[in-house]
Amino acid sequence: MAAKQDPEALAAARPLLTDLYQVTMALGYWRAGRAHDPAEFELFFRQCPFGGSFALAAGLRDCVRFLRAFRLRDADVQFLASVLPPDTDPAFFQHLRALDSSGVTVRALPEGSLAFPGVPLLQVSGPLLLVQLLETPLLCLVSYASLVATNAARLRLIAGPEKRLLDLGLRRAQGPDGGLTASTYSYLGGFDGSSNVLAGQLRGVPVVGTLAHSFVTSFSGTEVPPDPMLAPAAGQGPRVDLTTCVEAWLERVCAHLGLGVQDPHPGERAAFVAYALAFPRAFQGLLDTYSVRRSGLPNFLAVALALGELGYQAVGVRLDSGDLLQQAQEIRGLFRTTAAQFQMPWLESVPIAVSNNIDEEELARLAQEGSEVNVIGIGTSMVTCPRQPSLGCVYKLVSVGGQPRMKLTEDPDKQTLPGSKAAFRLLGSDGSLLLDVLQLAEEPPPQAGQELRIWPRGARESCLVRPAQVEPLLHLWVQQGQLCKPLPSLAESRAFAQLSLSRLSPAHRRLEQPALYQVALSEKLQALVHRLRAGASL
Question: In this protein, which residues make up the domain named Nicotinate phosphoribosyltransferase C-terminal (predicted)?
Answer without folding.
Answer: 421-528
